[in-house]
Amino acid sequence: MATEPPLAILQSRVLRILLAISLLVLQTVALAQVHAVSLKEATAHDLQLAFGQNKLTSRQLTKFYLNRIRRLNPLLRGVIEVNPDALCQADRADREREAKPYGSLSALHGIPILLKDNIATKDKMNTTAGSFALLGSVVPRDAGVVARLRRAGAVLLGKASMSEWAHYRFSGNNSGWCARSGQGKNPYNLSATTCGSSSGSAISVAANMGAVSLGTETDGSILCPSSFNSLVGIKPTLGLTSRGGVVPITPRQDTVGPMCRTVADAVNVLDVIVGFDPYDAKATREASKYIPREGYKQFLKADGLKGKRLGIVKAFFDFYSGTRVTKAFESHFNTLRKQGAVLVDRLELANINEIYSYSSERVAISAEFKLALNTYLQDLVVSPVRSLADVIAFNNKHKHVEKIDEYGQDSFIAAQATNGIGKTVKSAWRNMTRLSQDGFEKLMRQNKLDALVTPENIVSTVLAIGGFPGINVPAGYDEDGVPFGICFGGLRGSEPTLIEIAYGFEQATKIRRPPTFLR
């Protein structure tokens, strides 16, 4: 057997050492480049600029977020699972960027995004609405919004945790809990509520475990967690974004929207996900007339408040009387005026007590949920459960993991007892239409308002029953460090105006700050 001469062996070892040192230097330079770009709180625009200047790659960015998830998620529980193919998608985005001229790609190209766990992905990830009942189920296709994100080149980073079954299984105040990931924690104050049901989407982006995220809302599920986690959340007009492939509550109110750290990021996401989907044809076709030809980015105007008429319903602020929220809003009203807005104060919303009795909404949702969920489950390629009755039985069988004794499933049982769409449900539909027409719509039109201004998500039910849009923007922090937001709500299709208002307020105040994890 031939042997290498001693000199050759030495040269070979030296070359290996030099090669190892070179690789270490290259890795150090790459790491230094990543940290030269501040990734915490970085916007999509910041990241795209770094991509274009070769200071950052999608792979480096994705690894940054995966490391944040690995480090923070055991405490915060905002992510239910990560995508095993996330780095492969990031590599593909890097290759595409090299092959195409700068500026020719989507604003979300190569940007990692987290999806609420009720939004279907046809890949290695689960779609379970936070429940073990759907673990291992196989969806027939990507949700409509996911298909659009893939076409835009976004990196699907993982699934965000959520209040199980979009907080519809049980009626108690258990926001942020689901069987698969446990109790989500508010990164600003670990003992405070996360709100829900898009709790993980909010927690994760607030704590910089993802660049941007998607949530869903039936009544407050985007606006409320955005408020409590110092995020911008857009609840779009019904049908502006597809619900195809989303585990449903009710097609009459469900919507999908962005949850991000800035208005600009939320708008970039909105621009990608809006549009017609054959799997949600009726709603998306009707709403497509509202989509502006050049998209929503054109409405990011620093002077967007100028000339806007903003309504203030007294009852919504009386609820917070004497709190830090009230004091903050007094300052915000002055800011709105200084930026050129006209405030129409002390308004009364007709039938407000009836709206917030929730009686018609509860009746309608209970019947609609059973029908919609059964349809969704029957469409799955593989599933341990095929009906709401199966889900109830699964939960009873697995009482310990689903915490049936503690949280129950009262809403499920009530829904299962319904029998289709009868006279009572149709009466509830007519009543909600009347409440919207005689209340919010009449108030907006009679006072020629561009938007209604409210604290936190208190207006969410008004917006929900009529399919109206709303945008939450960070507005402050209470004495315990818990964030609260300001919400701008408008008539159907008023997203361009609401974006101008929200962006104008954000740029005039710049209130958001990252969590400090002190509590």
TrEMBL record:
Residues 61-457 form the Amidase domain. Keywords: Signal. The keyword Signal applies. This is Amidase domain-containing protein. It comes from Eucalyptus globulus (Tasmanian blue gum). InterPro entries: Amidase_dom, AS_sf. Pfam families: Amidase. It comes from the Eukaryota. Residues 1-32 form the signal peptide.
